[in-house]
Design goal:
Layout (H helix, E strand, L loop, with lengths): L1 H35 L3 E10 L5 E12 L3 E3 L5 H7 L2 H16 L7 E5 L10 H12 L6 E5 L1 H6 L1 H12 L4 E7 L16 E4 L1 H5 L5 H17 L2 E4 L5 H9 L4 E2 L8 E2 L6
Parallel strand pairs: 2-4, 4-5, 5-6, 6-7, 7-8, 8-9
Antiparallel strand pairs: 1-2, 1-9, 1-10, 2-3
Helix pairs in contact: 4-6
The structure holds ligand C2E and magnesium ion (3 copies).
One magnesium ion binds next to loops.
Organism: Lysobacter spongiicola DSM 21749
Protein name: Diguanylate cyclase (GGDEF) domain-containing protein
Length: about 270
């Protein structure tokens, strides 16, 4: 009897494993379709000065107009896109559409794009990016590339080479989600960074306890010493804006100022 039960459990286990594998395969197929049918679309979220709320830039965020499931955010498909390698083509598709949108941006504002760690492992990423900017007519000085700590440290030498070459053409680099990764400060100066983006997990507890305020002001001091701009992510309340201003944070992004919106609804 025990044996029978045991077998049954195994069977259940097997079936659920199988279903997961099929889901992943199915999504891979659907992502290929998404590329073929051009279902990926950049949404744009404003980045503002915290004091007067003026817009200094926009971050492009990938959305998938899924034929049955509606508009999907990266949380629903990024893992499969990364594992299958499809993110490569998906990112380039999004860069192209975002750059075309940003080509007519007012001077003094920038477009920020997220790049998969894969791109920083390739030797020709900078060349491809500059070619794309040339084709779309977007000024490289208006582009900021958002990278994560993990993607910098994956192949640090190649990442440094690519970002330095891009920097010589005026392209900036932002360190995204700061505070969620290794948060080792020692490597910060080793890369040509322009912007530090404080992850929104820090803001969640802001105003409740003294701890995150102390951490944020330390990060702002560090950024200042390294000559970096600071953008706080995920600002949802006026109180958070006030506290961040008091801590000396200059820029921010979040639902308080604007949600990610399709190009038709967000002027560049
Ligand atoms: P991220 O780069 O840190 O982007 C910020 C995320 O926070 C976005 O989620 C944005 O919609 C969300 N957000 C902005 N303001 C608020 C707020 O006030 N409250 C809350 N709760 N959330 C806010 P999203 O668009 O779902 O993107 C998730 C992540 O997916 C991004 O995190 C980025 O790492 C990645 N991603 C987005 N677009 C692309 C892309 O085109 N290529 C690649 N490789 N990754 C992308
Ligand atoms: Mg980002
Ligand atoms: Mg971020
Ligand atoms: Mg984040």
């Amino acid at each position: 009897r025990a044996k029978a039960l045991g077998r049954k459990r195994w069977q259940l286990f097997d079936e659920s494993l199988q279903r997961t594998a099929i889901d992943v395969l199915e999504m891979e197929g659907e992502l290929r379709e998404a590329l073929r049918l051009d279902q990926l679309e950049p949404y744009f979220q404003p980045i503002v000065r915290l004091d007067d709320r003026s817009v200094v830039g926009h971050e492009a965020l990938m959305r998938w107009n899924h034929p049955r499931r509606g508009v999907l955010a990266p949380g629903d498909f990024l893992a499969v896109a990364e594992e299958s390698g499809l993110i490569d083509a998906m990112d380039w598709r999004l860069f192209k559409r975002s750059a075309a949108w940003a080509a007519g941006m007012p001077p003094g504002t920038y477009l920020s794009i997220n790049v998969s760690p894969r791109h920083l492992r390739r030797e020709d990423f900078d060349q491809r990016m500059l070619e794309l900017l040339g084709r779309t007519g977007m000024d490289p000085k208006h582009l900021v590339i958002e990278v994560t700590e993990g993607s910098l440290l994956d192949d640090p030498d190649n990442a440094r080479m690519i970002l330095t070459r891009l920097q010589s053409h005026g392209v900036g680099t932002a360190l995204d989600d700061f505070g969620t990764g290794y948060s080792s400060l020692s490597y910060l100066h080793a890369f040509p960074l322009r912007v530090l983006k404080i992850d929104r997990t820090f803001l969640a507890s802001l105003g409740q306890q003294g701890h995150s305020a102390a951490v944020i002001s330390a990060v702002i001091a560090l950024a200042g010493a390294l000559g970096l701009d600071v953008v706080a992510e995920g600002i949802e309340t006026e109180e958070q804006r006030q506290v961040l201003l008091e801590l000396g944070c200059e820029f921010g992004q979040g639902y308080l100022f604007g949600k990610p919106m399709p190009a038709t609804a967000s002027a560049p």
